[in-house]
Amino acid sequence: GYENLMDLEWVKANKKTPEYRKMLAWTMNKLYESVKEELHPVIMSSEQEIYDTT
User: Fold this and answer.
1) Domain of life, per the record (predicted)?
2) What pTM was estimated for this model as a whole?
């Protein structure tokens, strides 16, 4: 499942795969929907890497 995105070793090994890109897109959409509007620019500026948004 999507818990693999929290495993830095898995991310490092799979960063260029379609599976990773699909999971990242879904996760970033959910993150965007979950936070206050004031934080949307922060998320959008870091959309390539979920760890940059924390």
Assistant:
1) Eukaryota
2) 0.63
